[in-house]
Structure formats: C-alpha cells, structure tokens
Amino acid sequence: MVAGTRLEDFLREHTTTDISKTLMALARACTVIGRMVNNAGLSDILGVTGTTNVQGESQQKLDDLSNQILMDYLTQTEICAGYLSEENDDIVTLCPTGKHIVSIDPLDGSSNIDVVAPIGTIFNVVNRLSKQGDVTPADFLQKGDKTICAGYVIYGSSTILMFSTGNGLHGFTLNTSDSEFYLSHANIRVPEKGKIYSINQGNIEKFDDSIKNFLNYCSATDKETSRPYSLRYIGSMVADLHRNFLKGGIFIYPASKGEAKGKLRLLYECTPMSSLIENAGGKSTDGKQRILDLQPGEVHERSAIFIGSKNLVDKAESFLKN
Ligand code: AHG
Ligand code: MN
Ligand code: MN
C-alpha cells in the first residue's frame, strides 16, 4: 500500500468492482457534504428544519440535505438496491435490480454542526437477501458479521474517509485542491493499551453501579496502568472514535435509566463502527455480547456499546460481570 494512492486506484486493486462503485459513490457524496459543512455559516443551511425524525429527534437542515445527497449518489450507481437512514422513517428502494443494502447515519453529531466541532457520516453495506424488486426489512436486518464494507467520513480539520472491506482499516484524506481522496493512513491498528475514556459523564446518575465503578477505576491513580486515564468527549461518535482509533481508548454509550438499550442505533452507528474496530484489532460489545453477533429486530433499533482498545473493553466488561 503506497501512501498517496488515489482512492479509485486503491479500490481497483484491493476490492471488487461492485464495492468500488458503492464506495466511490459514498466518497463523492461525502465530498459534497463536506464542502457544504465547511460553508454552512455562509448559506442559510444552519439550524433546524422544524421537523423531527422517526426517533423524535429534531432534524437539522444539514441532516436533511446530507440524506438527499447520499440517496442521489447511491441511486446513480444502479448497484444500491436499498437505503436505510436515520433521517427516513422507512427503508427505501433505490434500484430494484441492485445488489447492495446501505444503512447510513448521514450526519453524525448534529448537535455539533452549529459550533464547528467535527461531525461525520457513517455507513454500512451488506448484500441484499431478496432477489429483486422492492427491498424488504429482512435485507437490512442482518447481523454485523455480514457487513461487506463499513466506514465513516469525518468532517474535521481535514476530511478523512476511513473504511474497511474486511481487510484492515484504511484512511484516505480529501485533497481539497482536486477533490480526490488519497491514502494517508494504511492498515491502522488501534493501540492495544488505550489511556482515554469517552462517555457522557453528565448522565452518571442514570448509569448502573457497574458503569460508575468502571468510571471510578478510570479516574483512580495507579502508576502501573498509567491511571488516571484522560476523559475526552466531543459528542460526535465519529469524532470520538476517530481519535480513539488513532490514539487508543474506549468509547461508551451505555444503557441507562430511561434508555434501556442506550441511544445509538445498531444498524448505522454501532455495527459499522464495530466492524471497523475489529478490523483494526480492537473490540466492541453491548456489554453482554459482541455487537457484530447481535440479531437486529427492527431497522432503527438501538444498542448499548463499549468499543475501543481491547484492554479497556475487557476491563469494562470485567466490571459489568460483577
Ligand atoms: P446524531 O447526531 O446522528 O443523532 O448522533 C448523535 C449521537 C452520537 O454522535 C454521539 O456520540 C451521541 O449522540 C452523543 O449523545 P449525548 O449528547 O447524549 O452524549
Ligand atoms: Mn449519529
Ligand atoms: Mn445523524
């Protein structure tokens, strides 16, 4: 793998034509979204649309625009049969003869849009199960270990596409001069011994004692394990995990009083991120089992998640079992 290789050339060499088509469409769509995000303060696209999504969350104008752009680019591939999005109530058939099923969080970290903190797009691709015609819920309700391609694009101080097609985790940085992605992070391995924990600690009163005890462990002093660990929380899953992928650490969004399955969505947040972390040598669990082994029951299902460096996820699990 040569640093600086153009995304399209890399894909030609390392994956199938079908996956290349879908990934290139996602990359192109995200290039447009990234440009929109960069210029958002200049066009009237900040703030809310005034509508809520199926989960009752208020939709930002950029959530909605990103969703439209992704659907347009994926439709043009003619290979994407079905589309599931945080911003659509129902699954959508894009191309009745297509092969791929794509689940997407068009813009992750919406609450950070107006304050220019990093946000992202998360995607997960599986093969369709139905033959042709309209896609069915069963096409989407596949366990994470059926993923053929997962990734995200972070819109931060750089725009970076990170993805895996099952052979490692690779990062491509957008060159804003020619709007092409180039290989910048080949075969990333998440550090085995992380020293960062990321969680919305403001919710601590709603957490089980096992979580509180793990947080006390993280903030306790111990020379041998380099504690206290650092607490870092941006509030965009993409941004928190991007940092932890590169530096090591654990990201937790647990179940809590009032959120029996946590907050994050299984098919377009937890599953793709878990597929990436496993491809980078890390670990991801809902506290009881591997995220990639969970059988989704409905398309907007939520899941608790503990994801990151193996030593920290193992440690968190040891508290959960007590
Ligand atoms: P989204 O903007 O797609 O709805 O996702 C927001 C998610 C995720 O990005 C982040 O990790 C989490 O919400 C933050 O939630 P809290 O504000 O409850 O910490
Ligand atoms: Mn999200
Ligand atoms: Mn979102």
How does the SSE layout of this entry go?
Elements: H1 7-14, H2 17-38, E1 48-52, E2 58-60, H3 61-77, E3 80-85, E4 92-93, E5 100-108, E6 119-127, H4 137-140, E7 149-155, E8 159-164, E9 170-175, E10 180-185, E11 196-198, H5 209-219, E12 230-231, H6 237-247, E13 250-253, H7 266-279, E14 283-285, E15 305-308, H8 310-320
Helix pairs in contact: 1-2, 2-3, 5-8
The chain binds 2,5-anhydro-1,6-di-O-phosphono-D-glucitol (AHG) and manganese (II) ion (MN) (2 copies).
Describe what you observe in this structure.
With 322 residues, this protein is α+β, with helices and mostly antiparallel strands. It has 2 domains: 7-185, Fructose-1,6-Bisphosphatase, subunit A, domain 1 (Fructose-1,6-Bisphosphatase, Chain A, domain 1, 2-Layer Sandwich); 196-320, D-Maltodextrin-Binding Protein, domain 2. The chain is built from 8 helices and 15 strands. It has helices at residues 7-14, 17-38, 61-77, 137-140, 209-219, 237-247, 266-279, 310-320; strands at 48-52, 58-60, 80-85, 92-93, 100-108, 119-127, 149-155, 159-164, 170-175, 180-185, 196-198, 230-231, 250-253, 283-285, 305-308. The strands form 3 sheets. Strands 4-3-5-6-7-8-9-10 form an 8-stranded mixed beta sheet, sandwiched between helices. Strand 11, helix 5 and strand 12 form a beta-alpha-beta unit. The protein is globular. The mean pLDDT is 96. Bound molecules: 2,5-anhydro-1,6-di-O-phosphono-D-glucitol and manganese (II) ion (2 copies). One manganese (II) ion is lined by residues 63, 86, 105, 107-108, 110.
